[in-house]
């Protein structure tokens, strides 16, 4: 991720939190919410901040013979770099784990984005995965939801 993209994410998060603080007279009762909506049929992921569409990316979800879990999840673990123990130590950069071994993470197979191709994880372009990872770290896992629908 470029330093400019990283800076924009942090400035946006800070501005949203400051606005929330100001408009609630310093008694913020609701934290800023980050929602990643993955649409399996469209092979897309839309990221919303407090309900406002902010990012939209192509993804690859489960290919034939595999399954991406459906439902609403919270991030359970973040790993800047992870290697799949189940699939021959395949690299999983910028992993946001949300259900057991399932994660949103970067892929080197960017030509396959937009088509089902994974073992069940949600694959993103490396730049998008780095941005999403930074967003989840910035807003916090407790303020983040990952919603996967057909």
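Sequence proposed for the structure above (150 residues):
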């Amino acid at each position: 991720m470029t330093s400019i993209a990283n800076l924009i994410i942090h400035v946006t998060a800070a501005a949203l939190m400051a606005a929330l603080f100001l408009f609630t007279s310093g008694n913020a009762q609701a934290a800023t919410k980050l929602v990643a909506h993955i649409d399996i049929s469209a092979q897309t992921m839309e990221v919303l901040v407090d309900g406002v569409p902010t990012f939209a990316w192509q993804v690859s979800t489960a290919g034939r013979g595999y399954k991406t879990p459906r439902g609403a999840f919270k991030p359970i673990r973040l790993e800047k770099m992870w290697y799949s123990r189940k699939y021959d130590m395949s690299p999983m950069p910028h992993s946001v784990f949300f259900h057991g071994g399932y994660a949103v993470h970067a892929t080197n197979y960017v030509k396959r984005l937009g088509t089902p191709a994974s073992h069940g994880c949600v694959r993103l372009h490396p730049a998008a995965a780095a941005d999403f990872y930074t967003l989840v770290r910035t807003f916090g896992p407790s303020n983040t939801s990952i919603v996967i629908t057909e």
